[in-house]
Amino acid sequence: MDAISRTLFAVIGSLFLSVLFVQEGHTGTIGVDQRRELQAVEAKVRAAQFLTRATFGPTQPQIDQLASEIEQLGDLGAFAAWIDRQFEVPPSQHHELTRQMILDDGYDLLDSGVRPGAYREYAWWHIALTGEDQLRQRMAWALYQIAPVNTDVPGAFVRRLDASGQPIYLGLSNYYDMLVRNAFGNYRDLLLGITLHPVMGVFLSHAQNPKGAPEIGQFPDENFAREVMQLFSIGLYELRPNGRLEGERQKKPPIETYDNFTIEAMARVFTGLSFAGIPFDSPGRNYHEPMQMFDDYHDTDSKTILSNVVLPANQPGMQDISDTIDTIAQHPNVGPFIARLLIQRFVKSNPTSAYMQSVAEAFVDNGAGVRGDMRAVIKAVLLHPEALNSLEIKADRKTPALLVSATDTESSRLREPILRYTAFLRAFNPGSTHPTGRLLISNVMDEALQTPYRVPSVFSFYDPDYAPAGPAQAYETSKKIPGGRLSAPEFEIMTPNAITAMNSLFYTDIKRGGHDGFYTTAASNESLPYRIALDFTEQQNAADIDELMEQLNILLCRGAMSDAARDAIVPSIQKGVWSKSVRTQAAVLMTVTAPDCVVVQ
Amino acid sequence: MQTKRRKVSQELSRKGISRRDFIRASSGYAALASASLTSSALGLGMVDSAAAAIPTDGYKALVCIFLNGGADSFNLLVPTNDVEYTDYQTARGSLALPKEELLGIGDGADASRSYGLHPGLAEMRGLYESGNLAFVANVGTLVEPIDLAGFFDNQQRPLGLYSHNDQRGHWQSADPRSRNSRTGWVGRMTEIFAASGGSNSSLFANIAVGATTLLQTGSMVSPYVITSLSGVKPMAGYGAAGSGNGLDGVYTAATDQLLAAAYPDLLRKTYADNTAGAIDAAFEYQAATAGVNIETPFPATVIGGALQQVAKAISARAALGQNRQVFFVNMPGWDHHDNLITGMGSLVPQLSQAMQAFYNATAELGVSDRVVSFTASDFGRTLSSNGDGSDHAWGGNQMVMGGAVNGGALYGAYPESLVLGNDLDVGRGRLIPTTSTDEYNAELARWFGILNDDHLEAILPNIRNFYAPDATGYPLGMLG
User: Fold this and answer.
1) How far apart are CA B86 and CA B196, in angstroms?
2) B346/A contact by beta carbon, under 8 A
3) Which DSSP string corresponds to A140-164?
């Protein structure tokens, strides 16, 4: 189909649409040559939308593969099968890869030339961009944002061995691997893993936390006791299974899940933990093995903790911890609380009560009577009808064209800066000139305010309840959404400078045809250049600008670029560009920065 | 609603604000978005237009230095009278600073008491003694004044006490009965200034270094966020206006069109508007600050760099079109559950040296009487130790610096005794504040130009629990 007839069809399509839909349109028209192609194109849109959520960004082969499965099994069946296959993929290992990358550059692990921060990030990006275990890694990234640690912990950049015999700086990678390992496990094990991890122990200061000595005015550290409830598990207020505040309907004030007496009691639970294999008070560290209990330093009095559970006096310390983790994991808030956070990371910022309830139910019972099965939870998140039906897709058989409409504020989420960048790189089959072929990236997202391992604090990158000033703050949601206020967490880090810095990153990479960086080796005293080359061959081969835009619409924008946006982009390119390579650059740059593709549904 | 909107347009034309400015203003960061003037219960909707005009002549700036994490401020300002020091030492145990290391100061307002500053505050002692710095003692978030009996009687008290994000939020929102406020008192103040004809109606009225802040967010305004290293950088490739040719030309032309398109989805619209605003603002901000040169040396620390950026923005105030500005500088690292003595031993001198450099820079710029810097923090910390650190608590001590400050004195009431179990101690040495953040903030707002009228009540909803409507003086007196 030539450009003129495409445009003509688009115009006819819009006219048709204005009759079809009452709603004022922000619809995108994807023209096809023949009616029988409609189904295949729709499958590609749905595949791209799903992969935008479940991976670090769709690639064309993955879209094509999943689309063909959708045509056979329907979207629900194809997605469920894809998730089941992902469950079986062996996990990529951050600690091991970081270590290997250092060795491959010729360094000894403790060499003074090793830059621990850079290598930690290199491994993170290489796995995000190339790992086969995409869903597991996406889940780990979501969990990291719920229960983060950061490079402020002492030792994060120290090139010495810890008591486990591993470099202490690799402890952060070890923490991340713990999240990766538990991503498809049970929530209770995950919470215990977080609690006992020595890096978390240092980050929230419950490592080497001795029992109090009230006679000299000394009390246990309360830091972890508070945040494990406030941020990692149950939140501040009692929730109904559908995520609404208890009492909201009766207009009663919310009920606090715990008070400071609970925190003081739970602080006594988290006493006596310290680094494995060395004495409690040792100045040494062990960042690689779970903390162990030193009962001499544990408070053995009885404790009344969350949910008024009483831990009897004189229990072994680990029994106290185990009982406490059980109590938290059993709290009715966990399902809806975790449901909301995960839906926000994977699908949309403002889940309805029905959506949260269905995820919370999967948390409570995976269908086989097991509570806290994260496989059931992520399936419920990704396969809920609200997730599957958030794009309005209509086949206009007359034209023929596919009409894709995404207009609903309450179905939207702003893509995280990191996920925008991973998706951009993955879309163009990145290859590396580093001798190992690995994709080395570090420090590129500093100004975009989102970098792996570098949350500013335990409160992560953004507040789940944040909304920017202006109309979004004033917007009143439909009754389906608890609380009535719109949330758009990612906007909290979308500062003016972060917006322009992110766009500058895209511009520079696109103009150069890849991402340029420097690395070092033990043999070389100076920085060596490498390039992550991006492959735009498919785009260069597009017959015309319309075909190019349609390729990119599916690949980078899950088919949801509106006609209005395309009409803003295409004429400018037609007017100002004569070479195919610049045409491709301009089209890619405009697509990755288009509001229709930065905000997703 | 219609009336309100018309009023805004009239306001705009009266002040000669161009449509371009208005469009930018309504695009996310700035002052006068038309859609939501009445949307916030604390916003302009409640303010009676009959309120007296706000004086907006001359230049004034407030600089909030936020000690993020909850500074252990009873180790910044320590009582040194014999009995009081012994009580302090007993309560703090291993966290007590040796008396001989403290930098002694008197209290200009009460000769019977004496204090010592943390040894890292040498520069601040100099400013205190030259009358350019004051302390406000035991200030914290309150809904209304309460005592120990009232606290345990569950009188109205702030929600989420001792929790970082709640109390950090309450310092900034001035609404301690809410755990999810979306506007801060400075943001609301900015909107009142904008509606009263103050010049700070553009997006550079509030500037934050590093990250956005609740303090400076209103229902319509957000702070302009710069970085501590480079301020801001314009967007690469954009700006080749004119030809529309080549990658840069197409990028520029197509971006302008794309961002001007209509987006029914509010998040897309917000993203488009904010991007349009960000692109223009980066050029404007860079142009305004490019020629600025501050001679005063700043320490090469994060807080030093951040305050240097603030000094640059103050220097560029005319080019930025501002006569009232509020700045926010975040200094992380104060959550000393562990290693309190060594941790503060490193942070406190950084703070003191950076604040001194900033004061010197305001003197260099000739505005030391027109800039008031003040510290704030999540909360004070427990007087009792958890071994080698302290935990989250409530009231704490803060510093206010500037030529306009009636310095060399303490304001508020330093507790008579810090012994554990004293009549302010709700447990573990968590002290009920004796001065509310509302009084502290009202003092700053009044100096900035807000009168003691319904504007002040719109900015600080609980202020009348602490400060009478017919009071003529300032709540604390350090600035008035």
Assistant:
1) 52
2) no
3) HHHHHHHS--BTTSTTTT--SB-TT
